[in-house]
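### Sample
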Amino acid sequence: MIRRFRPAAALALALAAATPFVPAMASDRDDRRTEENRAVTAARVDAAAAVAAVRAAGYGPVRELDWEHGQWEVKASDAEGRRVALRVDATTGAVTRRSR
């Protein structure tokens, strides 16, 4: 007996098999975002205060600001105009250079 490979049927079968897992994956992602949002909200140093701390520490314009691992990750410029990566502690507002 000769069997034909039908790509459309194979794709439909693969999608049907994966469908039950999609809500679980989305739920995990949503849970992580919710936890991250709670951490940002609970931080003593908010985004505006993080930018102000970076400026007060002598760094130039902030190009990027992200919340990662319980602290603010900031990309800015130093006094000579070189790009630097910084961390701002979410509790104290302390600014430190991030090592690459």
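The helical segments are 7-18, 22-42, 47-56. This sample (PepSY domain-containing protein) is used throughout the tutorial notebook.
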